[in-house]
Sequence to fold (85 residues):
Amino acid sequence: MKCCLCDGEVDKHYTPEGEMYWDKGHNPAPVKTGEDDRCCDTCNATVVIPARLVHAGGMEPEAASKLAEVIMADYRPEPQEGEGE
Ligand SMILES: [Zn+2]
Fold:
């Protein structure tokens, strides 16, 4: 699957056991809103999250991209275990 923003390959996520559980990327809204648009981890962190903070939170673009860096530094996608959602 290709990233709709940088044309790179969307990142695959693996469980600690090495099983791939997610390869669908991220929702790129509000940067792109096409039905099939998905973006990679890098674009999500550097483009989409800052854009959301600016759109939804009314932040200055510069402050938003700094905050996004902090958020992504702590971000580790976790596989869902057990009870469904
Ligand atoms: Zn990308």
User: Anything to note?
Assistant: Residues 43 and 73 are 14 Å apart (CA to CA). The first strand starts at residue 13 and ends at 14. Residues 41-57 form the longest helix (17 residues). DSSP finds two helices and two strands in the chain.
